[in-house]
Write a structure and sequence with these properties.
One of its GO terms (molecular function) is oxidoreductase activity, acting on paired donors, with incorporation or reduction of molecular oxygen. The protein is built from 1 helix and 10 strands. By secondary structure, it is mainly beta. It binds FE2/S2 (inorganic) cluster (FES).
Length: 123
């Protein structure tokens, strides 16, 4: 397992104001959001039925899941007005126009060897 903390995921300009973008860190989908209070990052998958959070509408520091509109607080990962489990959140910083995510928790997961046959089947 490799030790990794801050990972550069995109340029600041890659995520328009009040939008999100999906990035991949160590094989995991992570959603990066540009909000009124700066950048935030969460897991990409909505805990309700798996909606892609990076495609949701951003307002203040929440995102509305594009599938059924549950609102998720980007600072805490809490799903508003619902008993659903929280979404994982990650520290984010912007340096010299680059967005960096502290994704060390994702590097505690077992490494997966790439399977060339599986890659071909998906393509
Ligand atoms: S999948 Fe996100 S609210 Fe239903």
């Amino acid at each position: 397992m490799s030790e990794q903390s801050w990972v550069e995921v995109c340029a600041e300009n890659d995520v328009p104001h009040l939008e999100g973008r999906r990035v991949v860190i160590n094989g995991f989908y992570v959603a990066v959001f540009n909000t009124e209070e700066g950048f935030f990052a969460t897991g990409e998958v909505c805990p309700h039925m798996g909606g892609p959070l990076s495609d949701g509408d951003v307002a203040a520091t929440t995102v509305s899941c594009p599938l059924h509109a549950r609102k998720i607080e980007l600072k805490t990962g809490v799903v508003h007005n619902d008993d659903l489990s929280r979404v994982l959140t990650f520290p984010v910083k912007v340096e010299e126009g680059k967005v960096l995510v502290d994704a060390r928790i994702l590097y505690t997961q077992p490494e997966v060897e790439e399977d060339d046959d599986e890659q071909d089947a998906v393509a």
